[in-house]
Amino acid sequence: MDNFVFNNYTKIIFGKGCENDVGREITKYGRRILLHYGGGSIKRNGVYDSVLSSLKEAGAEVVELGGVQPNPRLSLVRKGAELCKAEGIEAVLAVGGGSVIDSAKAIALNALYDGDAWDFHARRAVPKAMLPVGVVLTIPAAGSESSDCSVITNEDGFIKRGLRHDCMYPMFAIINPELMYSLPKEQIANGCSDIFAHLLERYFTNTRGVEFTDRMIEAAMKTVVNNARAMVCGTADYDAWSQVVWAGTIAHNNLLNTGRVGDWGSHNIEHELSAHYDIAHGAGLAIVFPAWMKYVMDHDVPRFVQFATRVFNVENDPFDQKKVAKKGVEAYSAFLKSLGLPLTLAEAGIGTEKFSLMAKQAVEIGGGKQGNFVELREDDIVSILKIAAK
Amino acid sequence: MDNFVFNNYTKIIFGKGCENDVGREITKYGRRILLHYGGGSIKRNGVYDSVLSSLKEAGAEVVELGGVQPNPRLSLVRKGAELCKAEGIEAVLAVGGGSVIDSAKAIALNALYDGDAWDFHARRAVPKAMLPVGVVLTIPAAGSESSDCSVITNEDGFIKRGLRHDCMYPMFAIINPELMYSLPKEQIANGCSDIFAHLLERYFTNTRGVEFTDRMIEAAMKTVVNNARAMVCGTADYDAWSQVVWAGTIAHNNLLNTGRVGDWGSHNIEHELSAHYDIAHGAGLAIVFPAWMKYVMDHDVPRFVQFATRVFNVENDPFDQKKVAKKGVEAYSAFLKSLGLPLTLAEAGIGTEKFSLMAKQAVEIGGGKQGNFVELREDDIVSILKIAAK
């Protein structure tokens, strides 16, 4: 196991009705609040009203900025940061999923920064501080509610870039799975795919002596596999939802990568897909990750065997480990398919025309490579995209 | 799953050589430091020198208070709190295991309190704040390095009482498993028993819909079972040590009881044993917990079957679930025995003479009962002690 520092200070407030605590929590950091949200679904499902009523009750002065799109855009971040400065905002409240939270973090960073809003994500500036960010989570998936990450898309060139820094943990995250029941089926499936992919990125490591985190990741993966279908079926099954949503937060709060180096190649390849084609992140991952697995499997067959046997209960065959490893990938794909997710680029309507461009952009951000479990160059990424094609 | 709030702000600094960061970390909270430790083993194994050198380098002004005993005593807490007040101490650094950390927390609480030092643990006063506490962990087990708990023994009546409060998390915990290699075999075994017991207390719950935390607890239990023997054998196996030590911290940082109510009956029964007989906590738990399991098993046989099959790989027998459940308890006892731990009160030289007194004192603190999975009254505790007797 590698040395590590782990310090996640996000306060998690989890369960039925907990959104009514938001006013009390956010006003601990100031009265001037930027309320940040997406396309307006929170106005239809009642979350907006609950949140606003709690804010008013706590004496908050609310400035609103809606309109966050999936793959959140730099232009809105710019607008938000200017608004914070003009309005003397003291804290940002994100009500939404990963896109809204990532946008809120970028706004909160830039509210305290006078340079260009793309500087941080473009690695031209290092974050020092951000306005306090609070979260009311309405989509399970991104894990951004208690992570140090923000992923933003710059429309100028369709560049999607992730940024992480210690100062980027939200102060609190309010998580009531019941607020998520009304999500469209596809979005639930995408969320489950994203959670599972966060676990996989951590799982595939070259670090030895990591039995504890291996087993914790497997615990989370099994939980997602056992419960995701009930969520997608729209059964309003609190037991199923609460398990996956809590696993989704833990999947991305850095606990499960303590002392180990994860991969992250698939995520960065997928970022190119969704930047160029605006495909949902979870759907993109459902296409890219199995292809990545097939491409890199020979690097460490035992790890794939462990994945297959422990997570998907594939029976071990000591005489044909590769077969067992492959069955694990098949089981993962079958799980994704059971949620209604696309398994190929063709199914998602994505052609081969931008493979080279996307591979080039993906390695650009990694200094000529992507991934840690196996280092991928441009031609490797093109090969993975070809496997993913159909 | 129950609603919950989870907010553990202890910064974990884990790995080889990390004790050299202690000066920099603790002086973030002030220069006047109380250095608190136990019987002097840290002077023999070099930890004291490393810590003191790091403190001096960071410009700390150090006041020392050693002499913490296992089952840490109130008298030393009193002395430490007075010392903090007299010396204008700004932060307390605990270098040791659970006893030293628990003592440090009690001192840090009472340093800011003018009433009697037993008030908090006796439930006559509620904590509001404590001096910042930092930890250099030298014994894996108690989990106190990132928990909100402190257990203190009042010599006046041999009363051992646990206390927990949100303000009682240490600011940081420095954890280098290499510092623990020189521990006596018995102490390592006691530590592993204590870690496993912390997991069991959380595992045995009546809360439904807790698959995720069930699986996370099982992940930690399997990790302890697979690696504890190598630690006790003195193999200086970093992979084994680092897994169990990290699992030991997570076992007790409240993550694994999110959304569920644990039991804690066995811990409170054991507190009486070690208060009256000064038996090591881990050894006491090795005696009490299997006895508790036998006594309460019929309350929820399926949970015991899950424990047996998932943690100890007992083969399921759908036609005789009770047999499977019993085999789980046998496997747990065999594991404890393999570490050299006592399995009966007789082996520990403890007779039957105080069963009634200990049962009475144990339920006193719980308002007439102990335990949540099964509520135990005085006569239940006497019955459990009788099972544990030989």
Could you say which overall geometry of chain A the principal axes of the C-alpha atoms support? globular
Q: What kind of sheet is the major sheet of chain A?
A: 6 strands, parallel
Summarize model confidence as the mean pLDDT of chain A.
96
Number of helices of chain A: 14
End-to-end separation of chain A in angstroms reads 38 Å
Give a structural overview.
Two copies of one chain form a homodimer. With 390 residues, chain A is an alpha/beta fold. Chain A contains 14 helices and nine strands. The two termini of chain A are 38 Å apart. At the A-B interface, strand 1, strand 2, helix 7 and helix 8 of A face strand 1, strand 2, helix 7 and helix 8 of B. Chains A, B: This is Iron-containing alcohol dehydrogenase.
Outline the secondary-structure elements.
The structure is a homodimer of 390-residue chains.
Chain A: E1 4-6, E2 11-14, H1 22-26, E3 32-37, H2 41-44, H3 47-57, E4 61-65, H4 74-87, E5 91-96, H5 98-110, E6 133-137, E7 149-154, E8 159-164, E9 172-175, H6 185-203, H7 211-232, H8 238-250, H9 265-277, H10 281-296, H11 301-311, H12 321-338, H13 355-365, H14 378-389
Protein name (chains A, B): Iron-containing alcohol dehydrogenase
GO molecular function (chains A, B): alcohol dehydrogenase (NADP+) activity; butanol dehydrogenase (NAD+) activity; metal ion binding; methylglyoxal reductase (NADPH) (acetol producing) activity
Keywords (chains A, B): Oxidoreductase
